Amino acid sequence: MKEKRTLMLPGPTPIPEHARQAGAQKIIGHREKECEDLLREVTEGLKYVFQTENDVLALTCSGTGGLEASIANTLSKGDKVLVLCTGAFGERYATIAERYGIDVERMNFPWGEAVDVTRVEKRLEEDTTDEIKAILMTHNETSTGVINHPQPLGELAEQYNCLLLVDAVSSLGGIELKTDEWGVDVVVTSSQKALMTPPGLCLVSVSPKALKAGEDSDLPKFYWSFKRAKDRYDRDTQTPSTPALSTLYVLREVLAEIREEGLENVFRRHKVVAKAIRQAVQALGLDVLVKDEKIASKTVTAIKLPTEIEFTILRQRLKDEHNVYVTGSKGKLKGDYFRIGHLGNVSRTDVLATISALELVLQKEGLEVELGTGLQAAQKVFLEEERR
Ligand SMILES: Cc1ncc(COP(=O)(O)O)c(C=O)c1O
Q1: Would you say 123 is a known binding-site residue?
Q2: In which band, very low, low, confident or very high, does the pLDDT at 4 lie, cut at 50, 70 and 90?
């Protein structure tokens, strides 16, 4: 039974079986030609998913390392940045910048809502001395399940001559992000989310504008240096330090699979699964945090916990009785909401298994839930999609 785990977390996510097996390949020397081929293929595959011609660097760390790197490589001590905070991960980006001695101005938005672009525009208009060097934002705020659309912010960054740094850790490969077309200077994601690969790699795209800004950056960096990574890749298709080889093997397979499916279809699949989850839990009488469909995440959904049940009980029962894994909430939502992740290698069957398990657990906990109501709502979404 343990093998049949249904991982419905906003990362790490399940790995397609053939890709998972690729991770068991024999280790090669990271200065060998074979490794150069591996890195080249992965980099080309990533450019497709990032929709970019910019450099894409593979750093050996999780997403947070990439967020640090995005700051350390593009900014200088005392620079002013505007951090758009719509939840816990926006907060984290701000905190990292502060630790690097950046002058952080947080622009806070209510949790569960998206960035209000007019407020950002107004603030940039007021910045007549061009103090603000960068806008930092979270594409998909994993703590609330909200999508912040980078395109209008890319336009503002261009107009007001600042950089746009985007945390796309829980979105890239699941929600559309047109890096070049939308003018995003740095995009950070990590392997264990929509890229369906084990943890261990952080993938970062860097625009020429960001590289140029980096030339003047005085923040300390060695392991995180974009320049070292780019120079080494340009020179001999290698990484400066030993890369996470086994993770790269898996990522190569996954990227080939994504290309075969086609990005449009990948995004469509995420939309359908997200809609099915939303409709199902609402049919069961549960409240979703994000009411507005337009900004509702396609990779994670925050759901209000019914007062009758504590999160620890819900999680434990889903896990022990059904092998379904969900997670709690963070920051100010902790204890009030739980989250279902639905990104990467999550199938319709996984959705149905999760909703079915949820119905059973809620009913056993004494809630008035009619078995099958959530399932039917999800099934309807799938049927509608097939008739499209
Ligand atoms: C939006 C976002 N940013 C950053 C992180 C941190 O990523 P990691 O745990 O890979 O360091 C996460 C993790 O869930 C995330 O969802």
Answers
A1: no
A2: confident
